Give the backbone structure.
Amino acid sequence: MHYHARWLATLVLALSTLAAAGTTSAQSGKIEVLWLGQAAFKITTVSGKVIVIDPFLTQNPKTPPQWKNLDALGKVDLILVTHAHADHIGDAPELAKKTNAPVYAPAGFNQTLVALGLLPANLSPRMNKGGTITPLGPDIKITMTRAEHSSEFAWKNPATGKDEVHVGGEPVGFIVQLENGFKIYHMGDTGVFGDMKWIGEYYKPDLLLIPIGGHFVMSPQDAAVATRDLIKPKFAVPMHYGTFPPLKGTPQEYMQALGTTSTKVFPINPGDKLEF
């Protein structure tokens, strides 16, 4: 009996050690961030969950051809949309119905999507600014933040052929905290606002996905102030530039305006991916 008891105790200890090692291995995995043009990103988490943000793909002139086929995204677990403009909602409804991934968008916009028949209610759940959700499990936290922009939803009614404008809620950004604590701040479309300093101090994002194109969003100079003086992330990826003629800002102008800073900037191209 004593032998079997010791053997059982040894087996339990070994299994516990293996389970702990598996957890450690998962937590030391890589985070993949793939930019698909404008504000569209595919984020693959440490445990292999896939989050797609602002999937403007099939009509995006900067999205590489292979990614204009929504099937190329593969498995998608969650879709985040920062506001109702066409270059952000993009292909979200079709992608949600294809993958059964819910779309979290500004409060009010989700109701518009359901009322117009673009999404079923189960794929358009509600949340609001300041709220934190964990639809992918307790280790991945999604928080909706303020953005300084607009969010009307322009839609052509297929029954009448007429253009309509509907409620799009208020624009937002997202803080995405992953399993290993790494935080990504997708700012959506925004101008500079003073609470960016509070967001930086409170959430302490590691990676900033920041619009720099100007005209509709921050200019490179505005974005440099937001990065260097207010948010102070470890890393930054400039986005939302060069897609349409008014978005004239460039990563080079952004980096020049930043000057000497502790933030490492990745001026990547659509279709490029980063690992963290």
Remarks:
- The longest strand covers residues 141-146.
- The two ends are 51 Å apart (CA to CA).
- Residues 244 and 270 are 14 Å apart (CA to CA).
- DSSP finds seven helices and 15 strands in the chain.
